[in-house]
Amino acid sequence: MGALIGNTSKVSEVSRMTISVAHGVDNATLKDLVNPLTTVVLPVIYLVGFVVSTPCNLLCFILLCTCIKRKTSTIIFAINLSLADLLYSVSLPLQVSYLFLGHDWRFGAVACGITTVTFRCSMQCSILITCAIAMERYLGVVHPIKSRHWCTPWRTGLVCLLIWGLALAVQTPMMRHDLTLRVEELNLTTCFDVIPRGTFGSRSLAYFYFGAVTLLFGAMPLVILVACYVAVTLELRRSPPTCNEGQSRRYAMVMCATAAVCFILCYLPNVVLQFLHLAYRASGISLYPYYKLTLGINSLICSVDPFVYYLASQEFRNTFQKALRPFHCCSQCKRDTLYTPSEVVNFTNAPTCNSSKL
């Protein structure tokens, strides 16, 4: 995430505007580049995210692709989400090294471009796919008839292709320009923290670009996801109780709430800080280190996703246990009664209990 620099100005990814000094980088930017929040705290968060997220998402991706034969819409979404989270996590080691070195990129312009595009594209895909999963669950519970028509494997695959295509298309300015910039005042080379002039053409286009990205990959998915999970929870509470499924129903509602809360905690600070940083930077006050810190918080969702969307799934747990049988790491796989939110449509369609038995 960076700032656009010209002869007299530069704009960050959240449209940070500054007045340039003699060598092209103003004092506020120099202070941002040496702030301990981004050179110590942030790389530690990224490192934790990499250590936890990479093996979990790699395992989930392999099992989802190879061990689950029936590729339902839920499984297709899960495969794409695990791939997005995996790509995001493998882009973190170079980010960690870069930040620990005080924003000094030593891997060349090509590596900077690849890392930046992978980092941004995978994060944006993860956000949109998570939002699509929430919409699928909403349709499955609140509109089950429409769900049978719309939530087919073919349509789901098409949605995932469109998400990946949109995220890649948004990275076009990053692919066409060298994102490294030499900062002589600090004797270092930045990678996307200070974007060279001309990347977006003009200041107004930079404002439009980053504003559109914030809305499309931040504010809108957040609102849609929360609305969908609130609707799912309300529908589950309104529907008649089903035989012997009270515990599973409560579990499903807890999982819906967990998914929503995790998404809010990880992405809401970033959305808010982007808008605040824009407003304050116009007045000469920079919130860039705090905005960067929220990106670290974003990375934690990749570590949470495997537990919220895969390991908590009945079908995936059974597949996971079967895969471990040759290593004698688990007992005989038995079908349990816990369901993920994607399976809760069964609760609204199952036979209701006779009131005399309650």
TrEMBL record:
<feature type="transmembrane region" description="Helical">
    <location>
        <begin position="290"/>
        <end position="312"/>
    </location>
</feature>
<feature type="domain" description="G-protein coupled receptors family 1 profile">
    <location>
        <begin position="56"/>
        <end position="309"/>
    </location>
</feature>
<feature type="transmembrane region" description="Helical">
    <location>
        <begin position="107"/>
        <end position="135"/>
    </location>
</feature>
<feature type="transmembrane region" description="Helical">
    <location>
        <begin position="156"/>
        <end position="174"/>
    </location>
</feature>
<keyword id="KW-0472">Membrane</keyword>
<dbReference type="GO" id="GO:0004930">
    <property type="term" value="F:G protein-coupled receptor activity"/>
</dbReference>
<dbReference type="GO" id="GO:0005886">
    <property type="term" value="C:plasma membrane"/>
</dbReference>
<feature type="transmembrane region" description="Helical">
    <location>
        <begin position="76"/>
        <end position="101"/>
    </location>
</feature>
<dbReference type="InterPro" id="IPR017452">
    <property type="entry name" value="GPCR_Rhodpsn_7TM"/>
</dbReference>
<feature type="transmembrane region" description="Helical">
    <location>
        <begin position="251"/>
        <end position="270"/>
    </location>
</feature>
<keyword id="KW-0297">G-protein coupled receptor</keyword>
<keyword id="KW-1133">Transmembrane helix</keyword>
<feature type="transmembrane region" description="Helical">
    <location>
        <begin position="206"/>
        <end position="230"/>
    </location>
</feature>
<keyword id="KW-0807">Transducer</keyword>
<dbReference type="InterPro" id="IPR000276">
    <property type="entry name" value="GPCR_Rhodpsn"/>
</dbReference>
<protein>
    <submittedName>
        <fullName>P2Y purinoceptor 8-like</fullName>
    </submittedName>
</protein>
<keyword id="KW-0812">Transmembrane</keyword>
<dbReference type="GO" id="GO:0007200">
    <property type="term" value="P:phospholipase C-activating G protein-coupled receptor signaling pathway"/>
</dbReference>
<keyword id="KW-0675">Receptor</keyword>
<dbReference type="GO" id="GO:0035025">
    <property type="term" value="P:positive regulation of Rho protein signal transduction"/>
</dbReference>
<feature type="transmembrane region" description="Helical">
    <location>
        <begin position="40"/>
        <end position="64"/>
    </location>
</feature>
<keyword id="KW-0325">Glycoprotein</keyword>
<dbReference type="Pfam" id="PF00001">
    <property type="entry name" value="7tm_1"/>
</dbReference>
